[in-house]
Each structure stands twice: as structure tokens, then as C-alpha cells.
Amino acid sequence: MRIQVVNPNTSAAMTETIGRAAAAIAGPGVEVRTTCPSMGPASIESHYDEALSVPGLLAEIASAPADGYVIACFGDPGLEAAREFADGPVIGIAEAAMRTAACLGRGFSVVTTLDRTRGRAWDLAHRYGVAGFCRGVSACDVPVLEVEAAVDAVAAACRTAVAADRSDVVVLGCAGMTAQRAEIERRVGVPVVDGVQAAVLQVESLVRMGLRTSAAGEFAPPPPKPYSGPLEPFTTT
Amino acid sequence: MRIQVVNPNTSAAMTETIGRAAAAIAGPGVEVRTTCPSMGPASIESHYDEALSVPGLLAEIASAPADGYVIACFGDPGLEAAREFADGPVIGIAEAAMRTAACLGRGFSVVTTLDRTRGRAWDLAHRYGVAGFCRGVSACDVPVLEVEAAVDAVAAACRTAVAADRSDVVVLGCAGMTAQRAEIERRVGVPVVDGVQAAVLQVESLVRMGLRTSAAGEFAPPPPKPYSGPLEPFTTT
Amino acid sequence: MRIQVVNPNTSAAMTETIGRAAAAIAGPGVEVRTTCPSMGPASIESHYDEALSVPGLLAEIASAPADGYVIACFGDPGLEAAREFADGPVIGIAEAAMRTAACLGRGFSVVTTLDRTRGRAWDLAHRYGVAGFCRGVSACDVPVLEVEAAVDAVAAACRTAVAADRSDVVVLGCAGMTAQRAEIERRVGVPVVDGVQAAVLQVESLVRMGLRTSAAGEFAPPPPKPYSGPLEPFTTT
Amino acid sequence: MRIQVVNPNTSAAMTETIGRAAAAIAGPGVEVRTTCPSMGPASIESHYDEALSVPGLLAEIASAPADGYVIACFGDPGLEAAREFADGPVIGIAEAAMRTAACLGRGFSVVTTLDRTRGRAWDLAHRYGVAGFCRGVSACDVPVLEVEAAVDAVAAACRTAVAADRSDVVVLGCAGMTAQRAEIERRVGVPVVDGVQAAVLQVESLVRMGLRTSAAGEFAPPPPKPYSGPLEPFTTT
Amino acid sequence: MRIQVVNPNTSAAMTETIGRAAAAIAGPGVEVRTTCPSMGPASIESHYDEALSVPGLLAEIASAPADGYVIACFGDPGLEAAREFADGPVIGIAEAAMRTAACLGRGFSVVTTLDRTRGRAWDLAHRYGVAGFCRGVSACDVPVLEVEAAVDAVAAACRTAVAADRSDVVVLGCAGMTAQRAEIERRVGVPVVDGVQAAVLQVESLVRMGLRTSAAGEFAPPPPKPYSGPLEPFTTT
Amino acid sequence: MRIQVVNPNTSAAMTETIGRAAAAIAGPGVEVRTTCPSMGPASIESHYDEALSVPGLLAEIASAPADGYVIACFGDPGLEAAREFADGPVIGIAEAAMRTAACLGRGFSVVTTLDRTRGRAWDLAHRYGVAGFCRGVSACDVPVLEVEAAVDAVAAACRTAVAADRSDVVVLGCAGMTAQRAEIERRVGVPVVDGVQAAVLQVESLVRMGLRTSAAGEFAPPPPKPYSGPLEPFTTT
């Protein structure tokens, strides 16, 4: 079984961190390949960045046939588009993390990077039906590309959030926090969920069950369509 | 006052139709300019198309300073990204049409083009808070680029929807139906709302009131960021 | 085009203030006429006042044929009744203000007059589908007829609300605040929406599009009915 | 204990029917007095009628001191206004009937008179928090003042509704159906709830427990206020 | 008329307190019998306790034919199971208390015993459709079997909750608080609802109206089934 | 790693079927042990059966230390109680199946055994936050203990449901259908999710990530408590 993990920003360092975490959690016999696009934003910290990360992300998925795919950015960019044409199931890390957290307690707190990304996290909580479990979304105020080195700031924000939200579980709101899971759990004292790991295992589970996105309706392959300009390579046939 | 209407697909014919409808409804002293991107899909009929229309759409908005902007595709692609950096307020036609319809009766029916776009319309109804007014979303099963010439099929689908949904109002679910509003209203016998017109007037109203997207938090301009590859022109500073 | 704005309380001074704001925002060629009833409460500060303002409001609408109507009290009293028999579309200022604010940010704060009116504002937020955008409703604790002169208190309450609710936009929760919009926006630093202006422009837009309340079902003219006692003039035929 | 039941329309015959049902269900030692206003609509079949029934209803409540009050029209007109100033608890028959039905099964069907009143019933189901129990609202298409004599039509509509909605319980959607409860239950075969009876017993229960509307905030007595014109008698001091 | 009140824990003292309150509120001619099971937990303070109280509770209901039943624990354990086979209507005290409170103001506060029971109270508020009225659930941090003697702690928690939640009404969140209702109301100054009383009167009202759980579908008697082990007595035929 | 799967009814045959499916899907190195209680109902087809299955289920979990637990009945009986005291994470098959299905399409259909169990499935869909994905719940009208042999009836019900609900995915609504997944998928043509497999893999994933139910609040071990009668063995210390 091969799982393709795509970090939708163009940071090689962050891609490597994600790749290590993903490979470490996958089951025996599962090959994990982690890549990032050659086009798009260096990091994703706004709706603008998120929207513009999608072409690169889709290009990565199209070029790397696998049994299943993970989108490793907490905004889950391009998830629905990817589901229409990917060869296997596609899971976003926010989706996997928040649904996992909902099995572990009455309510969870999400801790993201910049304050402006909080709205997107709430939108996703509503989309995935877990808003009733989400007690709060807060930010550690560290930019995405610096978050890996900022375990103290992240842990502090998690501790504050658990107390303020009276929550039972923490959800790490950025792929760049993936290596900090165990340490933060140790410091905060409640279960801490990392979406990269959760998504890899969710994809692995789906593949093992022989399940993938339904092609019966909305997520059937996109109708053939010419694309023009720099996006011409996206033409579907 | 100048309003920029962007048709996010690359069809010149459809852009012209939209432009005529937009210009016709705008108030005295309002200049309406309607354009479409040079890159992206010929029409938008999937999540894939919608995601890939966004770079072209954003490029259009960035290159054409105006007092306010309309996104003229019923999926409202790129709406949140556009709000972060546009010079004035931005309104999507689904947003404008569905909110307008909610003022005119107990419930409305949306009629879209292809069946697979129904899910997106429901998502937007939820996002804009009008799901309680939305009695149903149905499709006329005509592709986007043929819908302008298919008034009979659209009207028939509207009539069927109003009866099945027991609704009071129809919302046209594609910018390509804009020229059919009056004719369909005549045939169906209930108010019919066209999002292109509704969005132009909503933007005009906002500009007249001196209102634009709040820059206080989530929709502040995106943080400076290098972009690479074919998307390098989107670099923010 | 003629738009009739009805202030449902009997205060002439407040009617004049509303009239000035309404006339100032209307487009070229739009005649705005603002009136108030000769019967009913001097101001509306309870469910009791609101219920008892409706006969006077409906009498005003019935006696003044126009292309569209605005109900200029933030409780939107009598809105559904007015829609059943008015000659054109009818918009309440809470409806217009809250829907407008929902286009300008992630969340808005409503600031009303007396604390006891907060519940009604929440009810309307739910009715119009914008409760998800409404971050809070607070009161400036100034009675309706004194609010026009109390810009400092209103502005202070708005500033406090924006901070406490972490909201992006302010909605003025009383028609008597209409003249303060620009000044409060200047002081608070986020977009401030006034429902009088928003409703006038919404009605103007509907009329321009040829749209009015659907008469297909619930909002058809009321069945003929004898009325007795002091309400006999409301008999429908 | 004295309970005042107010039929908010001016029909003496219907008031008598309601009065008989109310008196029959009240417990030993409970005096039930049923009246109707001298002003207002002959029956309530629209938002217009409902709004205009409120002054007469409030006048009845103000002039007849009692331990508790029932508003005997399925639209529950004036409920919140009445709660602000009545001497004891106030219950609407839709409120009582729908909350009672929610204790008796998974879902109930409401059967009203005219089709145009269906929207109001849904609004109340949402307001009272029982929309999740409400499987459907349908109409028997008999005007309010003829419904008492139309048991066959009402029963037929109830039978159809239970089958179509797959519901367990019927709620009678008009005070004029009160005398038909047992007969319809016999014919339809599921529990049938009449709001007049349910509301009388709910008020009796509240009075026995010493409970009435909280005066702590929103429902405190309305602030003193001059009223003018024919509504001058409503002036509060 | 005979009403059976079941305290689902095995505490005789608490059963006696509940029995006194229940008998005191019932109408003339209503016999109230209050019992507790011989098997199960001494008190109910966790999901574990609640689940394991159900066999004893159901045995009590099965062995004591009555016209209606009250489940006198604020978690409403076994309510749906009891409705399937009881001879008459069954009401839980959380259900009765929260629905009663929703008639008395804009919002209520629930005050429970241990903090860990708060989640269950919220679940029930959602199930009964009153979550929109529930402004908060807080705990007085007194174990169930000590709460009767702890009126000061309960009253203090109620006062704090009303202020923090800005609510109009208090709901007592444990059957053991039933004797404290009047005293707490006196101290806190807003209506205080006790579920034991509310549930007895709700059952009495249902019986008087001739209403009981619908046997039309989900709540029909359970299909015949052999039970084994210590639960063999529950075998249905 | 050891996973304990508990079939909460006492049928040995059904337990064996479940055990085969569970063992077949578990990853390398995972030992799956499947048992059923010695006390309780032969099958679970009512709220009564479900409530009375819980003591046996909890006894099984208490007596078989493992790294994680699956509750293999689509009503997820005793899930919250089990989470309070089990040594590792606990997942119900309805929870796992419905959350898995929500990743595979816009909407799913649940197909259960008897019609009367439909309400419970909807309750769980709401509890887990997936009601927005659940397009319908229907029954194949085959009793639980006969469903394994009734693949034709189950498949027919699934086909009908997918067409009627316009759904993309099927969720098998009984553990007894576990062996039919692939065959039904073949016949119906959309992804079919079996909760037994999904739950085993969900538990395996949680264990691999080092995650278990939060003991921070509501799901901490139950307070020490004496139990009496036949339930005395459940005493906690």
C-alpha cells in the first residue's frame, strides 16, 4: 500500500518534518511518500494563500498515483476537488484530527498558528459536523514556518485553551506541530491529537477496507474541460 | 463609482451576457466593467473547476482597481480570498441571490445546471445562513455553456421545483441564466431572483453606504509571502 | 420610484431624523417619504410596545401607496403582516442591517438601547439565518428617545462590544442611531452598519429588479374578514 | 385558582366551544373563565389577522385579573407581550400542544386549517425547540370558523399526515378543533393532542408550583409609556 | 389516579424526600407512590452509574402498575426503554423541569451536583429541544447523597449561575434538591423549577387528558425476547 | 496490541461472525478477541433491549483487559459508561461507520434491521455530528438474528435507500451484516461501510497514536460506589 502525503505549501523543511511523522505512524507494509508542490505559497496563513495552494496540491496528487492521499495543511485546501479525481481516498488533516478528537472526550480545543486562521478552523468544524464538540479555537500567534521550533509557545497556548474552554482534548491546528504531539500531551495532561498521524491512519484504514470516495454523484471525475493560460496542464479529458 | 464584475470562467460569450445584465441593472453614474480571466477552466462544473478558477479570478480582481467587485459564478469561488485583498467590498452571486430571495417569501428553490453542483449550492446556503429558507436545490441538467440557449429547459426545471418544494421564490443557480429572469418569472408565476443583478446592486449599495470588508481580523490583507512557479505573480508584499 | 419609510413609534423628532438619513442615501430619482403612525406607543422598548405598534404601522402602509416599504424599528414589528398586503416589497431595518453585516466580516456585534431588547435582536438573528454571524448583542442602556443625543454612550458600547465579542463589524440596533453611523465607525475602527440606510437601499434594489414579496402562498393578501371595535378600519375585503 | 382563557378572535361561538373544553379539563377547585376581545378580527388566518388580534387580546388579559392565562389560538399571538404584564403565567396553545406531543413519541404531525398558516406553525416549532420532533405541518383546508363542524375533513387530514410524515402523534393546529380530540384519536389510532386542554393544565400546574414568568430581565413589566390615538388606553404607568 | 415515582438509586432517605415532594404537589384524588429499586447504585454520578441504574428502574416500573410514571433522577435514565413497556405515560424530571423553565423566561441555568454530570445535562437539553433556552449548566460540587443537606452551597451556585449566564430562571439539576425549591427561589430572586414536582404534574396532566406514549412505532412494546443470566427476569413474551 | 470486541447480545453465532470480520481486518500484530456477555438479551431490537444489554457489556469490558475496545451493536449501547472505566479507547460501530461514511461522499443512507430501530440511528447521527451527512435511515425489516442469512433483503433495501435518498454511500446498520459488505457493495454500486471493520481500525489507529479517552473531566473513572442486589459486582472502589 502506498499513501501520498502532500504538504500544500512549498517549504521543504516542513515537508520533511511532516514526512517523518507520517512514515513513523504508518503500519507495516505501508509506504508513505511525502511531497510538496513546486508552485504556490511558501506557507498558508490566509484564505488567499489557501486558495492559491490548490493548483500545486492538485498537481502533486495527479502526478503521484497512490492508494490514498493526505492533505497535510490544517485548512484542508482543495479537499473536495482532490476527491473528484484522485485514485483513492483523500483525507484532510483537520478532518481527521477533529473527528478523532470527538471520540476522546466531550469537547476539544483547537490551537492554530495565526489568529486570522481561526475562522477557517471553525468553518471546517461545522463542515465536518464536529462544531458541537469544538469548545474553542485559539491561536499561539506563531507564523507557520516558525511553529516547529516554538514548542513552548504552542504548549502554553494549549494549556491556556484547555483551561479557558474547559475541554478534554487538544487538536493541533497546524501540520508544522506534528512532531510536538507527545511533548505537548506530556505538558498539558490531556490527549493531544495530531492530524498528520490521524489522517495517515484514516487513509490506511480506508484502503484496508477497500473504501474510496463514492463516484456516484457529486464526486465523480470532473467533466472534460479545456483549461487555458498557465493552468492549461489541468485540462481534463 | 466603478464596479468590477468577474466571470471566473474563460468563456467570452458568457462574459458578454453577464456584462449586459450587470450594466443594465446598475444605477445612474455607476460604471460596470465585466471581464473574465485569461487562465483557468472554460466553465465551472465541478469542485475541481471551481478551485482552479480562483487564481484567474484573483488576478482579474488584482489588476482592475474598482470600488467594489462581483464574483459572477454561482459557486462563489474565491470569495473569502478576494475579500482579503480587494480594494472594496466583494459579493458573490449565490450569496446575493439567496439572501435576496429570503426577503421575498417563506422558502425558495435553487435551480442549477448539472446535478453534481447541487451539493455546492447547499454548502453555500448553509454558509450564508439561508438553509432554513432553501426548500430544495435541483438541476436542469444543461451544461453551463449551453444554459443561456436553454430557457425552456430551465423554466421547466423551475416550474417542477416550485411545485415539488412548495416554494414561493426561484433562485437562478448559474450566471448564464441571467438574461432569462423575466421570462422565467413570467412562465413560473413566482418571483425569480438572478444573482448577477442582485450582486451588482448589493455592491452598489455597500459602496454608497461607504462600507467594505472589515480589515479588523480574518479579512485583513494577507501576510507578505513569496510564491513560486507559475504562481509567482501572486507573491504578496 | 417612491419608497415609504415608516417609523413605527409616534415620535415626530425621531421620524425626522430617520427621514433625513433615508433620503440622503436613496439613489437619484428615488423619492423617500418617511412617516409615523398617529396611534401607538411613543417609543418601542418592550414586546408590549412592539406588538401595539403594529396597527399604526399597518395603517401607515395601507394609506400610502408606494413601490416599496421600510419598517424603521430594529424589532422589525409587523414585517410579515405588512408583506401580505403591501403594494411592494417590505424590508425591516434589523433584517437589512444584519444581512448586510454578514457580507462584511466573520462576525458582527449588535448594540441596542435597553438591555431588555436583546432577546428580540437574537430572535431576529435566528429568523434571518444570521445567528452564526452574530457574535453578541449588547445594550448601551440609553432609552430609545434619548439615543440620538447619546453618541458617546453608543460609541463606547460599540467599542466594548467589538472587543468582548472579537467581532469585525458593528450593527446599530436602533433607528435612532442612524445619524451616528459615520462617527461611530470613525471612533471604533470597524465597519458600522445602519439599518435605515441598508433597508432603503435593499428596497430600492428590489424595486429596480422588479421583485416583490411572493404572493404564491403564505404571503398572499389576507382573506377577507370583518374587524370590530376600534380596529374596524382594518376590515379586509 | 382562576385561569383566564382568551380566544383572540371575536367569534362568540368559538369562544363558547373553547370555554367548554377548558372548563372540562381543569382540576377540582379551578375556575376557568373564557372570553374573547371586543375588537379585532372575526378569525385569525393570516399574519395580518394575527398581528391585529393582539391589542384585543392584551386588553382582555389586562381587564381580567387571574392566577394564570391561556392564549387560545394556535399562532400564540401576543404571547411575549402578555408575559411582560400579566399577573400570572401565560401559555399559548401551540406551545403547550407541541411540547406535550414531544413527550409522547419520536415525532408529531401538526394539522392546521388553511394552508397559509403552515409557516407560522413551523416558526413556533422552532421557537419552542420542538422542530426536531415536528415531522410535518399540513392543512385540512377548512377556514377557522367552519372547522368545528368539519370533523371528517380534519380527521382525514390527520390520517393522511400520520402516514405521510411517519409520525406517532397528532397535534391539532386550531383551537376550533378542541372538541374533536377524542373522536380523531379514535379514528386515527395515535395520540391526539389538543392545545386548549394542554395549556389549561400547564397553567394549572405552574400556578400549583408557584411559578410565573420571570421578571428578572426581558419579561419585566414594560417601561411606562404614553400611547396615542385609539390605542391610548394601553398607556403604561 | 395513581402515579408511580421511581427514584432510580437505592437510597431510602432520598426516596423519602422525593416522595414527600411528589405527594405534596399532586392534585386531589391523585395517589402518588414513590419507590426505589433493590438493585443498582447507591447514587448516580457518572454514565456508569446511570447505565447500571436502568435494570432496577425498569423492574420497579414493571412491578407497579400505575396510570403514569416519573423517573426521578436528573439524567432521565431509561426513559425511552420505560416508554416502550410502561402502562401509562412516563416523564423524566430533567425533561419536565427544562421544558417548564422554557415557558418562564428567555433562558435558564441548570445547577447540578458534580461537575462531571454537566455533559449529560447538556445532552438532555439538546434531546428535548431546549438547548436554545439553556444558558449554562454548572455544578455545586456536592455529591448526590449530601445535596439535600447542602442548601447553602446549592443556593450559592444558583446565584452565581444566574449572574454568569444572565439567565431568568433556575432549574434544579438533582432530585435531591426538591425540598429546597422555595428557599432557593427566595434567596436567588428568580423562578426556580424543581423537576420532581414538574414531572408529577406533567404526568397528572397527561393522564387527565387521556394521553400516553404512542404505540404506533418506535415505542411499541418490545419484541418478545429471551434474557439470560441474572437478567433473565426481564425476558419479554 | 490486543483489541477486545464485544457483541452486546448473547448470540454465540452472531459473535462468531463478528469475530471473523474483526480479525480479518485487523493489522499485523493486532490480536482481536471477540466475546459476548453471559447475561442480557438474545438480540437488541428496542430501547428496552439496548438498556438491558449494558450490564453484560460492561462486565465483558471489565473482565478482559485490552488496549482498546469495540462495542459491536449499531445502537452503541453503553458507550459513554464504557469510556469512563475501560483501560483504553472505546469505539461504537455506529460511531465508526457513520464518521467513516462522511469522508466518502456528500451523504449516506443507513439501512437497519427493524423499522423501530430507525429513531435510535438518527439519535446517534445527531450525537456524532453527522446528521447533515445522513440522508436517510431505512429498515430491511429482518430481525437481527436472521439478518446474516438475508443478504438479498439487505441488498434490496440498500439499493432502494440509495435511490430514494439520492445518497453516495451506504452504512450497514447492524453488526450482523458485517460479512455482507463486499457483496452489497458489488450489487449496489456505491461504497458500503461496515461498522465492525471501521471500529476495529479506528481503535487500532488510536492505540497506535497512543490516544485514549480523556480522563480530564466527564470521562474520569466513576466515583467509588456500592451497588446492591444482582448488580453488586459492579461496585466501584
From TrEMBL, chains A, B, C, D, E, F:
<protein>
    <submittedName>
        <fullName>Allantoin racemase</fullName>
    </submittedName>
</protein>
<dbReference type="InterPro" id="IPR015942">
    <property type="entry name" value="Asp/Glu/hydantoin_racemase"/>
</dbReference>
<dbReference type="GO" id="GO:0047661">
    <property type="term" value="F:amino-acid racemase activity"/>
</dbReference>
<dbReference type="InterPro" id="IPR053714">
    <property type="entry name" value="Iso_Racemase_Enz_sf"/>
</dbReference>
<comment type="similarity">
    <text>Belongs to the HyuE racemase family.</text>
</comment>
<dbReference type="InterPro" id="IPR052186">
    <property type="entry name" value="Hydantoin_racemase-like"/>
</dbReference>
<feature type="region of interest" description="Disordered">
    <location>
        <begin position="215"/>
        <end position="237"/>
    </location>
</feature>
<dbReference type="Pfam" id="PF01177">
    <property type="entry name" value="Asp_Glu_race"/>
</dbReference>
